[in-house]
Design goal:
Blueprint: H1 15-26, H2 28-62, H3 67-70, E1 73-77, E2 83-87, E3 94-102, E4 108-111, E5 130-136, E6 139-145, H4 151-160, E7 167-173, E8 182-188, E9 197-199, E10 220-224, E11 229-233, E12 248-250, E13 254-255, E14 262-266, E15 275-281, H5 283-308, E16 310-311, E17 316-317, H6 324-338, E18 358-360, E19 366-368, H7 370-379, H8 381-385, E20 390-394, E21 399-403, E22 411-419, E23 432-433, E24 436-437, E25 439-441, E26 445-447, E27 458-461, E28 469-479, H9 481-492, H10 499-555
Antiparallel strand pairs: 1-15, 2-14, 3-11, 3-15, 4-8, 4-10, 5-6, 5-9, 7-8, 11-12, 13-14, 16-17, 18-19, 20-28, 21-27, 22-23, 22-28, 23-24, 25-26, 26-27
Amino acid sequence: MPVGNVAGLSSGIDWNETIDLMMEIERRPVDLLEARREKYQAQLTSWGLIESKLTALKSQADELDTADEFLKKSATSSDSDILTVSATADATPTSHDIVINQLATSHTHAHQAGWADLNSTAVNDSGGNQSFSYEYDGTAVTLTVSDGTTLQELADLINRDPDNPGVTATIIDDGSGGANPYHLMLSGQETGSGKSIQIIDTVDNPTDLYDGSFFDEANWSATHTAQNAEIRVDGFPDPGWGWPNPWIEAAGNDVEDVIPGVTLHLQDVSDGDSVKIEISLDDSAIKENINTLISAYNDVIDLIDSLTKYDEDSEEQSPMLGDSLARGIKQTLQMTIAQNIPGTDDSDDYRSLAQAGITFGSGGKLVVDEEELDDALSDDPMAVARLFIFDTESTSGFVSVTGHDENSVGGSYNFTLSYDAEGKLDESGTNTLNGEDVTIHGDHLVKGAEGTDVEGLMLLLTDPGDGPNSVSGTIKVYTGFSVLLSNGISVMTDEFDGALNGNSNRLNDSIDLLDKRIETWERRLETIEENYRRQYSQMETLIGQLQAQTSYISSI
């Protein structure tokens, strides 16, 4: 049975203290194992911090890898009560005068005759089924209205119909206090002159509710007419030209097809006056986004430096001092910054971040020369954008890049695509990209060969003209800083074969192995301590016996 405290009553020695001191010596192998475990755990925690910072950097990079995200445009209106405006990267910095003649409206059809109540009097008391039929946006709908259906139930039937093409039924009280104050209202959910509602009462299954004609088209009127918005941009079209409709028309009040990259949000008519809109490059927003990305980059560098440093004053080592993977990540990020952007060549005014005022400072962190960056944005904002974004150019108006992935490398690539008499890709002809056969997807899409620099690139063939024939040319692919960062971090942090995941797995495996060794040692130490206590207990017993014998002899 286990031995408890060894009191030392006979010897006068504190055997428990002696055993504790001896066990401290016996525990040294365990202490070493636990110290190693703490080191591995600190490294594992550190890698979690690095991965978190890398993920945050990737998120920032992903938010700045297209022209739309980078080339922020500011759009203002001289009268936001009449017109507001928004712009994408495609918008040309300029100003326009807008006149709004009318807004687009949806159609509202109201039953004039009215009804006595909502839930008592039936719109169908024929004893059988009747029909309610209407047409909206060219779609005809016929509803079966069962005997006893009330006005509210008819509205619910319209709204819950799975084939409803976009009409909302409501009921209003006209406040007259008359015999029939309730009116069924049908409202179109979309604006535009083509979105009108009509009650069908002259074809198969016509509306025949109540007495057969009470809900016919003749008893309805439009309280809102379905109409298009009408605007004029910079005096175009000139009313003096004698056109049937001297206005630009739009089905909705968010007009986005008239001025490229600009959406006009119509609020009210301008009563013949013009509202001036201004489109300009939003330098402050662009620089803020650049600085946010650079700050996220510097956060990664700062963290790696703090986790791999040696403090000479305190002689303390950081948990990842000498870690080659951490140093490798820092070097990879710095090499990404230092290189010319893939896809740029001597024809490009800006090929590296340094040319736009973004350079290395102390410790390998990035610094921004605001004046140089301002000059670059003023000189050629698109060229600066290509230092960050994914962008392409094609020498053919018939072929464009419509997709890419992390395997697509920046550069200039020749292509040849063959098409048949219908303008569809001809699999029997020559179809190559960068000298390699492409994979054809459908009638108009091709994909670059796997394992090459054009892997992941998707080319779209559009309207090549009469065939059979072929079209050849060159595409230029820019993979900017944001794209390179995002792709590189994706490789590092891949959950299956990324370097960070592999490193974390190794550390976890080492910690698990140490836990097992520590557990084995703890069981061994329990046995050792028990043996010490048994030995010293036996010794104490023997001393007591000897003392008793000595006392006996002395008393004789």
